[in-house]
Amino acid sequence: MTRREARVLCMQILYNADFSEISIDESLKNVVEGEVSPMVEDFLKLVKDNLEKIDSIIEASLVNYTLSRLNKVDKAIIRLATAEMLDGKTPKKIIINEALEITKEYSDQGDHKATSFNNRLLENISKNLN
């Protein structure tokens, strides 16, 4: 499994948890059958262990917007990217690029509004974490 595939699966698990209003662990069981890649487990652990902090960082980085108004797919993408930035093992530029590529594939509706919005938000988050 590539890192991108692991990120996409994590986004789907996080989305399912938020949409279904269940825990990330329950969502994992609903979305994945069989063994889970250690990379996916690591990404999910990062989010679970820091969810309050992640949401606080996102909320502080939004301009004239609230976390609750975010599209659930975008929220999952941004949460994962923020968790990775907090972890500090991957350069922020790579994290942002990966998040935007996932946004283009799963959230953008051809008008690039979601990609543009997420790019600005992720740049704000990156600056706030420095």
UniProtKB/TrEMBL annotation:
Lineage of origin: Bacteria, Bacillati, Mycoplasmatota, Mollicutes, Anaeroplasmatales
Residue span(s) of domain NusB/RsmB/TIM44: 5-127
InterPro entries listed in its UniProt record: NusB-like_sf (IPR035926), NusB_fam (IPR011605), NusB_RsmB_TIM44 (IPR006027)
Annotated source species: Anaeroplasma bactoclasticum
Gene: nusB
Record keywords: RNA-binding, Transcription, Transcription antitermination, Transcription regulation
Record protein name field: Transcription antitermination protein NusB
UniProt family annotation: Belongs to the NusB family.
Superkingdom, natural source: Bacteria
GO annotations of cellular component type: cytosol
GO biological process, one term: transcription antitermination
GO molecular function: RNA binding
Function summary: Involved in transcription antitermination. Required for transcription of ribosomal RNA (rRNA) genes. Binds specifically to the boxA antiterminator sequence of the ribosomal RNA (rrn) operons.
